[in-house]
Amino acid sequence: MRNSRIKRPIVGKLLLYIGIPLLIVYSVILILNYFWSKDNALQQMKDYLVELTAHHASDLNADFAKIAEIPQLLAEFYVSVDQPSRPELEKILTNLIEVNSYISGLTLAFEPYSYERNTRLVAPYVYKKDGQIIVSDMAANGDYTCADWYSIPALLRKPYWSEPYYQQSSEPILMCSYSVPICQNGNMIGIATANISLQDIKRRMVDINIMNGYTFLISRYGTYIYHPNEKDVMKETVFSKAVKYNLPVMRELGRDMVLGKRAVKAFPDPITGYRQMIVYTPIRANGWTLSAVMPERAILSTVYALIVKQLGLMVVGLFVIILIMIWAAYSITNPLRKLVKMTEKLATGDLNVQMENIKGRDEIHELAMVFNKMVIDLKHYINDLTAATKEKEAVESELRIARHIQESLIPRIFPPFPHRKEFALFARCIPAKEVAGDFYDFFFLDEDNLVVVIADVSGKGVSASLFMAVTKTLIKAKSNEFSQPHKILENVNIELCRDNDSAMFVTTFLAVFNAKTGAFTYCNAGHNPPYLLRPDGKISQLENTAGMALGVWEDCQYSCREIKLQKNEIIYLYTDGVNEAMSEENEEFSYARMEAFLSEIREETPRQITEKSLQTVKEYTGAAEQSDDITILVLKNLL
Amino acid sequence: MKKNLILVIFILLAITLPAQENNAVKFELHWFPQAQFAGYIMAAEKGFYVDAGLNVALYFSDGSDSPLQKLADREIDFCTAWLSQTIALRSAGMKIVNTCQILQKSSLLLMAKKESGITSPQDLNGRRIGLWSGDFSIQPKAFFNKYDIECQEVRQSYNIHGFLADAWEVASAMRYNEYYKIILSGIDEDELVTFSYADYDLNFPEDGIYTCQTTWQQQPEICGKICSASLKGWEYAFQNEEEALQIILKYCDEYKMQTNYAAQKWMLEVIEESIKYQCGDDPESWGKLKIEDYNRVTGILLDQKIISSVPDFADFYRGEK
């Protein structure tokens, strides 16, 4: 099934990048082939028509030349002998007409009174009629001297081929004559004329077979002597048809023809308008023109048929190629489709997928192999990751337990001593990691003296928390032995310094607050100096005492100081997680900001002060990760 | 044999009209059917003669005998003929009258190939010029006299082959016929130079409708109807040229004429020009013989001593004034 996300499938691209260029190339080849074939076919047609007309024109020319010999011979003969008598002339003409079967009539026509002084016109005429040779005199038909066959050669003093004419008989026969002037001593004394029937020529023209074409014969003045359309013969000329069909080009062709030119031209068929090729060749003997006409369509139809076949082959070929392309595309996309499905399965977490039955040794096969390896690797990785995660989860679980334990180590119930009205106390420890290195503690040494501790172990995490637990336990233990803060811390320090291979230390502030008197005795072992907040808003840091952080130097001596807390005076204990809290811009919260905040404190309870502090710090740090444990303990003297 | 060529067309009026012996008319045209006679043929074909109450039979002459003689012999009732010929016959005593002068302008001309170097009438001097005999020779003679031309006159056959073959350097031609045959033989008009007699103050109106004087006197109405129906035929032919040409070609085929569409179309156009010459397009003004034309023709006939006296115009011309 087609994936709707795939907008341009590979099969489409194959068709676009291969199929269409192939189609274009095929089409160009086909078009070029058409033009080449067309030119070739037309050239062949032209060569054929040129040869055909030249051949037949040559034959006709030879025939007319042969016919012309007879009157020529007759004219020469007449002047070379003593004037023959009329019967002698008739006999000569009869003999000639018997011997030359293609002659249908022979005349020796004389100028008025030149043959016989007393007879104006003498013209012995021998002709064939119904197979018989008949002897007569042309003068019997009237004055022949103004007939074309006589007057024109007589005036021109040169032989003359007459225009064709119909000899009237039961069936009009198309004839023409060749007339030769008979000249004696520079005088024209008569005309020797041979008449021929054009029936034979017509038959020969009919026999010229041109595929879908035709031939025609025109006289030297463009009159159709032979045309397949019988109605045109002796009625139409090339020029009258040019007028009839309004084809000036036809007149141009006709002009060429009557001028005895030989050419190959194209011109539209007068009726259909289709282009046709015309080849015309002059018949030199009598100035006639033989033309052959062939519609280009006739010859081009074979080209069209060839092109149609090629087009068919092209379509079939393209169809086969498209099928192959589709098959090729699917042979590529099918494994890819499988791969997509497998990948989708893989994405859902099924690591048991494998590409199977991938044939061939191509890139797709390689991809499938790599995919399979990837799945196996992924499976191994996931297994490893699962194990690691489990392990981490176990550690985290343990850390959570550790945190609970640590949290249980420090007092978390507030108010811690609800029955004691002399003071109020609140504390919070927010570890940066699962477990904190900070801690606070408070407990009564006796009825009135409350021990208050805040400490910060170097480092963070589990090791720091363990060190804190040790420190806290030691403080509590030593508090049972000593009541003065510096003593407690001195002893705790000694204990911590022993076997402190990890070189950890803890800054500690420990004070003993007498709830009845308000005395506040404290020892600061390297811890940030707490603040004394007075109800009037004045704040001050508690003066430091001698000694350094616990766990550093076993022999370190500590001292203590005592102050007396007045009513509503507050001791604000904190770890460096407060003043060193980092903003998003990597800037510390600083003592200045802390003091500014603390100077605003007036009537608030320790809980309110603590929570407000934490909120102020939180607001300051924003999205920045908490970098250190934050611990605050606030003690307020209420007496 | 030629006599057999006189072919007759009977317009079958009997079917459409009650037989009217008195209105049966024999009308002979002086040559084979062609566009020169388009008006009469169309009048017959389109029933204009019938509409006029005439039972007209059209005849076409083959030139072997004279329709005018037949008219005089009362073999026919009407015929067409040239004005110069009829004036000569009237002058010689034949009682024929002109009832309608159809062609106003002479189509007769002389033509030469430009390559001969002939450009003006004077250039005709010494040239071999083909001339027809009879009435066709009157205008040439007047022309030669007018321009003092001495040339070798050759009797010309009724075709143009001698001209095409250069046997005659100059040939006679009717503008509506032989002249265009030359064009249809492949010679362009601009290769020819022509001298149309009408352009040299030798305009001889040609075809007119004639009848004998007694017919005119006895049946003047029929004479008028023949003329008006004929003119109506001409009007129809000019307005429906293609139809007229097809009908004419059909007639030509029947008479085995060696002609064609282009030639007949040209002929009809030239004839139209001749009929409307100095008359205009209004058919009402067609068909009238003008006295100045009559005087011109008779003057030349007198000059050439073809006639010795001029017939009275009013006696000769009985058509509409």
Question: Concise description?
Answer:
The complex is a heterodimer of chains A (639) and B (321). Chain A is of the alpha+beta class.
How do the strands of the widest beta sheet of chain B line up side by side?
A: 1-3-2-4-11-5
CATH topology of the largest domain in chain B: D-Maltodextrin-Binding Protein, domain 2
Structural class of chain A: alpha+beta
Overall geometric form of chain B: globular
Oligomer description: heterodimer
Report the span from N to C terminus of chain B. Answer: 42 Å
The profile of the biggest β sheet of chain A is: 7 strands, antiparallel
Rounded mean pLDDT of chain A is 89
Number of helices of chain B: 13
Helix share, percent of chain B = 25-40%
| E-strand count of chain A | 22
Query: What percentage of residues of chain A falls in helices of 4 or more residues?
Result: 40-55%
Gross geometry of chain A: rod-shaped
Helix vs. strand class of chain B? alpha/beta
Uncertain stretches of 5 or more adjacent residues of chain A: none
Largest interface: A-B, 33 and 28 residues
N- and C-termini, Cα separation of chain A: 85 Å
